């Protein structure tokens, strides 16, 4: 693989500093390789492309489009889009898709998320490595073919909004006060269309599309970025706050008190709702969701299936098991009736619909789904991750262990998972206990091993 591609081709997508690492030359080659991989070359098909609001996105869209068209493929551009809007277009049009975005990464970055027709994911082991190898061959040429495929622009946003309301109707009658923080990302483009027909009083925050992220990073997994939203919820007396990441495929929920609702609790709530409409269904959850999630799935007659972390893995497992829903503790939520793709907007609509069906608050609604105390994800820079995992395996040898994704150790009143980052020399720790003291004790003990304290 060309070393330039080696810098930017990751486990699930293409990502790097742009234009320093991900430039139009590499992007065009990736567009050509994608056309070949998905069989649209030689005039045999079409690719749908969307992009976020980053300064480099239009340039990369042009380069990727030129690459597809240079191989004889056609291009439909849906213009500015959230990642789930691109997935919708891929599913609705039944075309391979490319989304130019670096998601929640800072302004200096950009990237490409790829999928086959029907929003089927492409990761390193399901086509991305082949695309990178083909792009390496193409980069070695001395002459570039001229684009011959067609190019057209098409709206997908209005149909997307209509479709979401079909699959998650939010009942009228209770007018919700909603504060939504787009973080200057793509939710500023999609929320107005989706919310236009809802019975809500919307207070928008940072809806101006700005790839420099002038107010805060669009990464709600970092709770420091939620401070403004939390304050606004309290100030306005809102029923609920919603925080979207840069490409708006993730959504975090703030309750009426300004507290963050655990994504595991959101997973449990949506699972409960899914099991009402589809009794006995299979629901997926990853290894770091709260143990309340499989408990609640089982209690409501469903089948809980545990998976590794990662969207391409979950989507493949959903297809294999016929699951109707899957949730990750990182705020990604996947829906069978949304082409098995993830959508923060659909998750937000589920919570709003559940709230609108009651006279209570978000905190009261979520109380049944939040049973335990979690540490949140704690990252540690390490020099020898495998050696540390081996040491933890030995230290907790008398307890239940599994290695589905890193190491999970389970006791009666707590569990922890330690797994390695795909891209950095980090170990990621998640701990959950029956109470705060138990969680804190286990957290500190495990961190002492990881950090050599």
From TrEMBL:
Q: What cofactor is needed?
A: Mg(2+)
Q: What region holds the Alpha-D-phosphohexomutase C-terminal domain?
A: 377-447
Matches recorded under CDD domains:
PMM_PGM
Keyword Nucleotide-binding on entry: no
User: In this entry, which stretches build a coiled coil?
Assistant: none
Keyword tags: Isomerase, Magnesium, Metal-binding, Phosphoprotein
| GO MF annotation terms | intramolecular phosphotransferase activity; metal ion binding
Q: Which InterPro entries match?
A: A-D-PHexomutase_a/b/a-I (IPR005844), A-D-PHexomutase_a/b/a-I/II/III (IPR016055), A-D-PHexomutase_a/b/a-II (IPR005845), A-D-PHexomutase_a/b/a-III (IPR005846), A-D-PHexomutase_C (IPR005843), A-D-PHexomutase_C_sf (IPR036900), Alpha-D-phosphohexomutase_SF (IPR005841)
Q: Which residues form the Alpha-D-phosphohexomutase alpha/beta/alpha domain?
A: 7-134, 159-258, 264-372
Its BP terms in the Gene Ontology are:
carbohydrate metabolic process
Give the record's family classification: Belongs to the phosphohexose mutase family.
Q: What is the official name of this protein in its record?
A: Phosphomannomutase/phosphoglucomutase
């Amino acid at each position: 693989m060309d070393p330039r591609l080696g810098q930017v081709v990751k486990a699930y997508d293409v990502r790097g500093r742009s234009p320093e690492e991900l430039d139009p030359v590499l992007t065009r080659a990736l567009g050509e390789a994608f056309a070949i991989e998905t069989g649209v070359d030689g005039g045999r098909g079409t690719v749908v492309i969307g992009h976020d609001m980053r300064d480099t996105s239009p340039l990369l869209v042009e380069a990727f489009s030129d690459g597809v068209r240079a191989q004889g493929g056609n291009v439909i551009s849906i213009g500015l889009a959230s990642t789930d809007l691109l997935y919708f277009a891929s599913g609705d049009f039944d075309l391979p898709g490319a989304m130019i975005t670096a998601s929640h990464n800072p302004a200096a970055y950009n990237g490409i998320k790829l999928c086959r027709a029907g929003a089927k994911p492409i990761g390193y082991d399901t086509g991305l490595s082949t695309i990178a190898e083909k792009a390496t061959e193409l980069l070695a040429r001395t002459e570039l073919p001229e684009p011959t495929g067609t190019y057209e622009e098409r709206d997908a946003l209005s149909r997307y909004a209509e479709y979401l309301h079909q699959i998650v109707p939010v009942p009228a009658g209770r007018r919700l006060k909603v504060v939504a923080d787009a973080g200057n990302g793509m939710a500023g483009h999609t929320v107005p269309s989706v919310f236009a027909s809802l019975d809500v009083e919307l207070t928008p925050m940072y809806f101006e599309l700005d790839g420099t992220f002038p107010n805060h990073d669009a990464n709600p997994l970092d709770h420091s970025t939620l401070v403004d939203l939390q304050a606004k919820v309290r100030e306005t007396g809102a029923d609920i706050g919603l925080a979207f990441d840069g490409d708006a495929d993730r959504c975090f929920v703030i309750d009426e008190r300004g507290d963050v609702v655990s994504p595991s609790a959101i997973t449990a709530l949506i699972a409960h709702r899914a099991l009402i409409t589809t009794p006995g269904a299979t629901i997926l959850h990853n290894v770091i969701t709260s143990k309340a999630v499989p408990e609640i799935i089982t209690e409501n007659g469903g089948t809980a299936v545990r998976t590794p972390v990662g969207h391409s893995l979950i989507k493949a497992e959903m297809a294999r098991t016929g699951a109707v829903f899957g949730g990750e503790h990182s705020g990604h939520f996947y829906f069978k009736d949304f082409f098995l793709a993830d959508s923060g907007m659909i998750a937000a609509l589920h919570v709003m619909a559940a709230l609108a069906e009651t006279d209570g608050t978000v905190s009261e609604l979520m109380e049944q789904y939040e049973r335990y105390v979690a540490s949140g994800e704690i990252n540690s820079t390490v020099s020898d991750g495998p050696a540390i995992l081996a040491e933890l395996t030995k230290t907790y040898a008398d307890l239940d262990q599994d290695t589905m994704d890193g190491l999970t150790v389970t006791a009666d009143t707590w569990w922890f998972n330690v797994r390695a980052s795909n891209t950095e020399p980090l170990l990621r720790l998640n701990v959950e206990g029956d109470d705060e003291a138990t969680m804190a004790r286990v957290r500190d003990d495990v961190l002492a091993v990881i950090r050599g304290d």
